[in-house]
């Protein structure tokens, strides 16, 4: 039943079941308010404002009830109910509190009606009860619409504030001023650079790749919001991005758990590097974090969380300059022998285990020994000795860490900012 259909009720559909006092909107409003507790689930010392908002809800429902039961026209009281419920939402009143107030109106109305109705008037009781049930649906919908509207407006304001603060922090301009009005600026941040791998479904021909990727991103953002109670600031795309985590929202050791949760939410591996910084240093920290992420990806270290202390050597060896160029030349004699380069890489990754290297290469251990001797002959460095191994490993890191050209592609949809 809609408001219009309620307005078309026959004038005497309920044959005199309600007393004149119940038909009076003011009387019903006062009767309902008398039943409500003073707190009604409200706190923060805003009793006057809250009372006004709740009274507006009660009166709008009372007017709906009286006019519907009497069969009279309804002058858009549902709109007034939505406005009153919107005020409750803005005042921080939980929606279940407002709905309990709505139910209280109908409960009082039915109680007074039953008390004043003759047992012989069963048709009137049934008709009035049916009207109340339908009216309850109308009012519940109106309250729900009001809360959804207010929450959307609040989310938009929050996102705007988050975007402003995130942009200010990452650009290094007026972060304190940007955050003072809406969001607090933390004393220190964990600056995370995220690399999101493609979801397996993104490669399925019968699915829209961008839709799958955006859903992956939404899951990551939702997990950020849940895990950090909405305190993280993020600038993310479907391929990754930057997240700023206030040091008050998580400890360094808790970041491992956070990354694990993000990976499970994304349903795909995530590679993350982290650097800590005070607000003025966030731009430089973000740049460093993404350079570290590039280093991890170029070296093929795999998904997970990496801190700067774990990557300091690799990072330094991969910085452009004459030192890196000189290191790379140590491997030039192996350019015509890809099998030797692969053996060296796996031998180092296997923690210098001949047997494990042979197993990974699917060759005999003696073949590994032969190839290691060939590497010594061609490069002049013996991987079985400390000095030789150090130079060869450093040269390998320097070469693998060099940025590789990537094909041009159309950028995926980007979500500018989010307060997770």
Automatic annotation (TrEMBL):
<dbReference type="Pfam" id="PF14361">
    <property type="entry name" value="RsbRD_N"/>
</dbReference>
<dbReference type="Pfam" id="PF13556">
    <property type="entry name" value="HTH_30"/>
</dbReference>
<dbReference type="InterPro" id="IPR025751">
    <property type="entry name" value="RsbRD_N_dom"/>
</dbReference>
<dbReference type="InterPro" id="IPR042070">
    <property type="entry name" value="PucR_C-HTH_sf"/>
</dbReference>
<feature type="domain" description="RsbT co-antagonist protein RsbRD N-terminal">
    <location>
        <begin position="28"/>
        <end position="161"/>
    </location>
</feature>
<dbReference type="InterPro" id="IPR025736">
    <property type="entry name" value="PucR_C-HTH_dom"/>
</dbReference>
<dbReference type="InterPro" id="IPR051448">
    <property type="entry name" value="CdaR-like_regulators"/>
</dbReference>
<protein>
    <recommendedName>
        <fullName>Transcriptional regulator</fullName>
    </recommendedName>
</protein>
<feature type="domain" description="PucR C-terminal helix-turn-helix">
    <location>
        <begin position="340"/>
        <end position="397"/>
    </location>
</feature>
């Amino acid at each position: 039943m809609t408001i219009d259909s309620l307005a078309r009720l026959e004038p005497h559909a309920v044959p005199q079941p309600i007393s004149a006092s119940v038909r009076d909107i003011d009387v019903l409003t006062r009767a309902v308010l008398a039943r409500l507790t003073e707190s009604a689930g409200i706190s923060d010392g805003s009793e006057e404002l809250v009372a006004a908002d709740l009274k507006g809800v009660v009166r709008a429902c009372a007017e709906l009830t009286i006019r519907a039961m009497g069969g009279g026209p309804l002058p858009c009281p549902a709109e007034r109910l939505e406005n009153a419920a919107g005020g409750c939402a803005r005042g921080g009143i939980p929606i279940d509190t407002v709905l309990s107030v709505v139910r209280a109106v109908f409960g009082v109305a039915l109680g007074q009606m039953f008390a004043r109705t003759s047992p012989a008037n069963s048709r009137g009781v049934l008709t009035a009860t049916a009207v109340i049930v339908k009216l309850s649906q109308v009012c519940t919908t109106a309250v729900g619409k009001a809360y959804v509207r207010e929450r959307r407006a609040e989310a938009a304001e929050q996102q705007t504030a988050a975007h402003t603060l995130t942009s200010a922090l990452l650009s290094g301009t007026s972060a304190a001023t940007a955050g003072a009005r809406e969001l607090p600026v933390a004393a220190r941040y964990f600056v995370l650079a995220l690399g999101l791998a493609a979801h397996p479904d993104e490669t399925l021909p019968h699915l829209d790749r961008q839709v799958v990727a955006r859903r992956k991103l939404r899951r990551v953002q939702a997990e950020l919001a849940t895990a950090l109670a909405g305190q993280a600031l993020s600038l993310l795309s479907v391929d990754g991005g930057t997240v700023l985590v206030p040091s008050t929202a998580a400890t360094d050791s808790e970041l491992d758990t956070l990354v694990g949760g993000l990976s499970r939410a994304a349903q795909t591996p995530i590679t993350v590097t982290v650097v800590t910084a005070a607000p003025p240093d966030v731009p430089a920290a973000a740049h460093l974090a993404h350079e570290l992420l590039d280093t991890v990806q170029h070296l093929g270290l795999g998904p997970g969380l990496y801190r700067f202390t774990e990557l300091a050597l690799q990072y330094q060896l991969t910085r452009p300059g004459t030192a890196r160029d000189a290191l790379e030349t140590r491997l030039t004699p192996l350019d015509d022998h890809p099998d030797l380069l692969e053996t060296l890489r796996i031998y180092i990754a296997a923690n210098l285990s001949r047997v494990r290297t042979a197993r990974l290469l699917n060759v005999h251990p003696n073949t590994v020994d032969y190839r290691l001797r060939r590497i010594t002959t061609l490069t002049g460095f013996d991987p079985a000795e400390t000095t030789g191994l150090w130079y060869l490993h450093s040269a390998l890191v320097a070469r693998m860490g060099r940025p590789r050209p990537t094909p041009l592609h159309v950028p995926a949809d980007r979500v500018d900012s989010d307060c997770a």
